[in-house]
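sry for the spam today, last one i promise. C-alpha cells for design, 746 residues
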C-alpha cells in the first residue's frame, strides 16, 4: 500500500481465515513492517516504541485502530485497521476549486475533534499534516503516525504509560512542566516554538490545523521557500497574508491558531467549537454524519487533469470536459482496466453533468467489446449500451487490453524481447530517489543481476531525464572490474530498467555508519580500489563528479566498486564549470562554479579517506553555502596529534595533499599517477589488486536489506500498463534501450 523511510505497509488477511476457506468473509488488515536495521542506524527506535504505546492508549473514532504488534529478528510489525486512501491524495484529486466551504468546515471539524481527544489525554501529536490523515471509504478521517508524539501533561496520562516511556527514553517527558522540548515534524507545518526549540503544547497541533485549512482553501501552503533557513525565518517572523477567496470567518479562526507566541493561541476547545465558523457543525454527531461530497466543475473549455499513480491511494484517473457538449468524461488508465478485467471488478464510471451528475457503472466482463473510433476515441459496449471514451492514445489502450487478455498465448515470445517479464524478482535490495533496486534471476540462464527500476514520472518530476540517459550512455562505453557494469537497459510505459552487476555487500556509507572508523590497512585498501576505478574513468576522459561513500559498494569479497554515473561527464571546456555534486565532497572550484577537471575526483577521494580515518569530513555544514564558507575561510590539514593511534604520517600527508583548496596544489594535478605512487602506497601490490587476488582486510558481513519482500508494485504483471500521458516527455526516453544480444540500441 505504501512505504516510508524505514517501513512498508501491506494489506493482509490472517492465514487461518484463508486456510479455513473464509477469505471472503474474513477482515482485511493493514500491516506496517518496520526494518529494525535501518531504524537502529538512524537512531529512530524510540519512534516505533512511542507509536505502539500511543496507539494502545488512544481509542477514538478518528484514530487508526491498533489490533496487534509483534516482532522477529529483522522487523517490527504493526497490525492496524485497513484504510487505504490518504487525505493528501484526496486534496490533490479534488483541489481547492472543488472543495466547497461546507466540505472544508466538515474536515476542519473532524481534525479538531481528533485533536481535542488527543489533547484531553495529555498528548501532543507534533506532526499533524494531510499525509498523516487517512480517509475512509465513508469519507471520514483517521489520524496516524504517533511516532513523534509526546506527553505534555502527566496528570492526564496513566502513570504506567508515563513510567514506560520514561524508562525507554528519559528525555521524553518534561518532569517540571507540561510541555516538551524538541525539534521534529514536517517543514511546512512546523511552528515557531519548534523551530526555536521551545516548549510545545496543544497549540502546536492547532497551528498545523490552520495550515491544513489554508491548504484546503487555496491549494497551497502559506510559508514557502527552497531555502530551509529562509523558510524557518518566514515561519517565525512573517505574518500570513490571507487571499480574499478564504471566507472571513475562516480567516478569523486561523488567526487564533497562528499566533506566533504559543501562549497566545486559542486552545480552549469550548470556545473554539462555539466559534461562528462552526455554526452549522454538530460536534456530537460528527462521526455519524454523511460527509458532504466534492462538486464537479464544468468549465467552458476543455480541461484535462492527470493523477500519476500514488503507492498509497492507487488513484490513476483522468477527466476531460468536452467544450461543445459540456460532457465530463471520466476514465481509468489501461492498467486499471486490465486489473478490473482480471479481477472481475465492476467500476468504470461515466458521468454526464446534464443528467444530474448520476454515475453509470459499466460492468466489466470477459465478453466486453471494445471498438475503436478513429484514433482518438473508443467505445465500450456493455449490455447493448455504448459508452464513448476519448483519448489521444485510444488505439494503444485497446491494443494493451487485448495484449493482456491474450498474455498466455504470447508467453513463449516474451523472452526474445527486452522485458521485466524475462526476470524473476527475488527481493528488494534498496530504494532511491526514482524507485528501487531489485535482485533478480534471469529466467533464460538463471544468472543473478541487480535491476535499477526507475519511475519515469519521478524522473520527469525531478527534472533528471538528462542524468538518467547520461548514466546509461556512459555505462555503454565502460566495462571494468572495479565499476558496477551495465548488461542491458530497457523500458516499459511506466519505468526504466537498468540491468547491472549484482553487488551485495552494501555501500560504504552503510559500513561507515556501522563501524565509525577503520584501521589504516582497511582504509588504504578502500583508497586503492577507488584509485583503480578513477584511473580507468579518467583514461576514458570521464570525470565522475559525485564520488562519495553512497556511490561505492562492496562486493561479497570486500572489493569496492564505483557506481552511479548520473552526473558524470566526458570532460570538455564548455561543461567544465557546472556546479553539480554532493556538498561536503565537492571541491572548492565546483562550489564556486569555476573550471574544473579530474582533480575534483581526487579531492572527493581525500574527503572519503579523511572520513574513514577520523570519523568525519574535513568540512561540515548543513548547507552548501556553509560548507563553501568553511572551505574559503581556512585550509584543513591533519596534524600528528589528530592521527588515530598507530596511523602513519604518510596517511595524513596523502589526505592533506588531496584536500588542497587550490587545484594546482592538489596531488594528481601535474600527473594523475602521482596519486597511485604516493609514499603511503609504498610496497602496495597493485597487480594483485587489479587481478583481485589481493586478500581484502575488510570483508562485509551478509548485508541486511531494507526489505526483502515483494509487493504488487514489484511484480512484472503490473508494470506495463500505465501510459505516461505526456507523449512529448515520454519520447525523450526513446534512446534508453540497449540489448547486447540483439546487437542494437533503440
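last one done:
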Amino acid at each position: 500500500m505504501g512505504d516510508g523511510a524505514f517501513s512498508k505497509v501491506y494489506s493482509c488477511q490472517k492465514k487461518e481465515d484463508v486456510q479455513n476457506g473464509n477469505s471472503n468473509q474474513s477482515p482485511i488488515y493493514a500491516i506496517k513492517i518496520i526494518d529494525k536495521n535501518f531504524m537502529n542506524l538512524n537512531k529512530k527506535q524510540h519512534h516505533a516504541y512511542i507509536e505502539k504505546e500511543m496507539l494502545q492508549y488512544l481509542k477514538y473514532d478518528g484514530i487508526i485502530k491498533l489490533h496487534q504488534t509483534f516482532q522477529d529478528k529483522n522487523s517490527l510489525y504493526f497490525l492496524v485497521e485497513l484504510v487505504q486512501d490518504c487525505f493528501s491524495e484526496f486534496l490533490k484529486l479534488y483541489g481547492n476549486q472543488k472543495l466547497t466551504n461546507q466540505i472544508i468546515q466538515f474536515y476542519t471539524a473532524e481534525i479538531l475533534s481528533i485533536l481535542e481527544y488527543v489533547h484531553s489525554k495529555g498528548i501532543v501529536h507534533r506532526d499533524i499534516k494531510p499525509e498523516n490523515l487517512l480517509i475512509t471509504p465513508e469519507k471520514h478521517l483517521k489520524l496516524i503516525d504517533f511516532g513523534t508524539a509526546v506527553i505534555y501533561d502527566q496528570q492526564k496520562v496513566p502513570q504506567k504509560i508515563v513510567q514506560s516511556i520514561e524508562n525507554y527514553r528519559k528525555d521524553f517527558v518534561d518532569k517540571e512542566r507540561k510541555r516538551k522540548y524538541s525539534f521534529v515534524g514536517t517543514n511546512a507545518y512546523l511552528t515557531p516554538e519548534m523551530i526555536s526549540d521551545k516548549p510545545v503544547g496543544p497549540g502546536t497541533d492547532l497551528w498545523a490545523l490552520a495550515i491544513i485549512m489554508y491548504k484546503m482553501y487555496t491549494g497551497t501552503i502559506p510559508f514557502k521557500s527552497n531555502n530551509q533557513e529562509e523558510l524557518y525565518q518566514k515561519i517565525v517572523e512573517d505574518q500570513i497574508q490571507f487571499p480574499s477567496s478564504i471566507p472571513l470567518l475562516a480567516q478569523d479562526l486561523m488567526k487564533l491558531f497562528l499566533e506566533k507566541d504559543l501562549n497566545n493561541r486559542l486552545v480552549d476547545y469550548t470556545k473554539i467549537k462555539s466559534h461562528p465558523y462552526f455554526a452549522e457543525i454538530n460536534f456530537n454527531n460528527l462521526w455519524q454524519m454523511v460527509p458532504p461530497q466534492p462538486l464537479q466543475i464544468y468549465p467552458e473549455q476543455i480541461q484535462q487533469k492527470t493523477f500519476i499513480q500514488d503507492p498509497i491511494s492507487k488513484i490513476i484517473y483522468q477527466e476531460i470536459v468536452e467544450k461543445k457538449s459540456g460532457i465530463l468524461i471520466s476514465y481509468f488508465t489501461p492498467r486499471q482496466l486490465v486489473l478490473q478485467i482480471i479481477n472481475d471488478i465492476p467500476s468504470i464510471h461515466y458521468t454526464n453533468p446534464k443528467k444530474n451528475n448520476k454515475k453509470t457503472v459499466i460492468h466489466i466482463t470477459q465478453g466486453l467489446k471494445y471498438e475503436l473510433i478513429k484514433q482518438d476515441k473508443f467505445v465500450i459496449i456493455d449490455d447493448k449500451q455504448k459508452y464513448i471514451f476519448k483519448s489521444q492514445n485510444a488505439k494503444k489502450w485497446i491494443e494493451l487490453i487485448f495484449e493482456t487478455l491474450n498474455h498466455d498465448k504470447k508467453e513463449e515470445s516474451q523472452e526474445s524481447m527486452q522485458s521485466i517479464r524475462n526476470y524473476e524478482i527475488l527481493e528488494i535490495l534498496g530504494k532511491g530517489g526514482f524507485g528501487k533496486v531489485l535482485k533478480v534471476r534471469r529466467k533464460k540462464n538463471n544468472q543473478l543481476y541487480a535491476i535499477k527500476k526507475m519511475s519515469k514520472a519521478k524522473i520527469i518530476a525531478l527534472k533528471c531525464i538528462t542524468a538518467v540517459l547520461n548514466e546509461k550512455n556512459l555505462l555503454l562505453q565502460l566495462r571494468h572490474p572495479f565499476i558496477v557494469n551495465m548488461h542491458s537497459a530497457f523500458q516499459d510505459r511506466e519505468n526504466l530498467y537498468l540491468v547491472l552487476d549484482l553487488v551485495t555487500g552494501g555501500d560504504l556509507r552503510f559500513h561507515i555508519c556501522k563501524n565509525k572508523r577503520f584501521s589504516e590497512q582497511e582504509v588504504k585498501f578502500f583508497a586503492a580500489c577507488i584509485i583503480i576505478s578513477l584511473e580507468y574513468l579518467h583514461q576514458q576522459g570521464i570525470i565522475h563528479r559525485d564520488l562519495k561513500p553512497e556511490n561505492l559498494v562492496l562486493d561479497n569479497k570486500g572489493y569496492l566498486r564505483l557506481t552511479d554515473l548520473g552526473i558524470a561527464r566526458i570532460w570538455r571546456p564548455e561543461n567544465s564549470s557546472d556546479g553539480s555534486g554532493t556538498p561536503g565532497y565537492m571541491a572548492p572550484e565546483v562550489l564556486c562554479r569555476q573550471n574544473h577537471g579530474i582533480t575534483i575526483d581526487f579531492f572527493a577521494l581525500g574527503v572519503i579517506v579523511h572520513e574513514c580515518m577520523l570519523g568525519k569530513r574535513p568540512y561540515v555544514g548543513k548547507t552548501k553555502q556553509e560548507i563553501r564558507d568553511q572551505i574559503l575561510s581556512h585550509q584543513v590539514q591533519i596534524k600528528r596529534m589528530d592521527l588515530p593511534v598507530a596511523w602513519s604520517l604518510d596517511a595524513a600527508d596523502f589526505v592533506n595533499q588531496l584536500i588542497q583548496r587550490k587545484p594546482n596544489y592538489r596531488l594528481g594535478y601535474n600527473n594523475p599517477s602521482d596519486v597511485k605512487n604516493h609514499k603511503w602506497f609504498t610496497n602496495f601490490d597493485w597487480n594483485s589488486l587489479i587481478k583481485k587476488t589481493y586478500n581484502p582486510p575488510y570483508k562485509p558481513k551478509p548485508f541486511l536489506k531494507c526489505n526483502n519482500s515483494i509487493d504488487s508494485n514489484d511484480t512484472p504483471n503490473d508494470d506495463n500498463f500505465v501510459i505516461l500521458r505526456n507523449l512529448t516527455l515520454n519520447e525523450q526516453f526513446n534512446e534508453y534501450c540497449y540489448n547486447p544480444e540483439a546487437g542494437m540500441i533503440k
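The CA atoms of residues 339 and 378 lie 19 Å apart. ok im logging off now
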